[in-house]
Amino acid sequence: MTSSARSRPRSRDDARMKPVIALLGPPGSGKGTQAERLRDGLGFTWLSTGDLLREARADGTELGARAGEYMDRGELVPDDVITDVVEQALAELGDRPILLDGFPRTVAQAEALGRELDVVVLIDVPDDVVVERIAGRGQGRKDDNPDTVRERLRVYHRETEPLVDHYEGRGLLRVDGTGDPDTVLEALLDGLGHRRS
Ligand code: ADP
């Protein structure tokens, strides 16, 4: 991590907490791909809200059933629901640094978190690349059909993109997400100050 990313004033509470990095970017920007690599390479604990919600659905929980209705429409799960899920997960995790994949997704979620994030990485990918990538990945995710992808993109621009302004000057790291995964990882590690030799 660069010294500049750590130079913001932190409250006394923050100082006792494990570092948290968040990955921001449209659907199909490769957040999960990069999160997996950062977990394996740098030992982060990877917390994906999308995966948490999909697991809750698979387990047939009340949360899963409620979240599923929003997910299938390409909409965001209500802020209070997802914030509770994340706070509980954060409290249960150990001392390793945490990588949030898919949270926060709204300014309200960022504010509800109750602590500053150490670094927020924006993986920047234009809409046409997103549409092309998701059409090509064919993983069979229910929300990957073209209409729902378009809705997820609309929701991203409306609800999540304002976070870019919110974090500008507060640890935002912009990374070009259009290259192959290795190139994106390289840029990300450079930005975090972890150059590989
Ligand atoms: P992607 O980034 O490709 O859209 P995710 O797996 O991160 O996929 O999220 C899938 C769905 O889960 C979202 O469309 C949304 O319905 C729900 N979800 C995930 N994270 C959040 C969040 N932080 N706030 C609200 N809804 C969320």
Give structural notes.
The protein is of the alpha/beta class. The chain has a single domain, classed as P-loop containing nucleotide triphosphate hydrolases (Rossmann fold). Helix content is 54%, strand content 12%. The protein has helices spanning 3-6, 12-15, 31-42, 49-58, 62-73, 79-92, 107-112, 127-137, 146-160, 162-167, 181-192, and strands at 20-24, 45-48, 98-101, 119-124, 172-176. Strands 2-3-1-4-5 form a five-stranded parallel sheet, with helices on both faces. The two termini are 16 Å apart. Residues 1-15 have low confidence and may be disordered. Bound molecules: adenosine-5'-diphosphate. Adenosine-5'-diphosphate binds next to helix 4 and helix 5.
Please give the share of residues in helix: 40-55%
The number of E-state strands comes to 5
The total of helices stands at: 11
* CATH level-1 class: Alpha Beta
Q: Which ligands, by name, code or SMILES, are bound? A: adenosine-5'-diphosphate
Q: Poorly predicted ranges (pLDDT <50, ≥5 residues)?
A: 1-15
Kindly name the structural category: alpha/beta
Distance between the termini: 16 Å
Number of domains: 1
> Which whole number gives the mean pLDDT?
89
Element pattern in H and E = HHEHEHHHEHEHHHEH
Large-scale geometry? globular
Task: Supply the CATH architecture.
Answer: 3-Layer(aba) Sandwich
CATH topology: Rossmann fold
If strands are numbered along the chain, what order do they take across the biggest sheet? 2-3-1-4-5
| Beta-strand content bin | 5-15%
* CATH homologous superfamily descriptor: P-loop containing nucleotide triphosphate hydrolases
The main β sheet shows up as: 5 strands, parallel
The whole-angstrom Rg is 16 Å
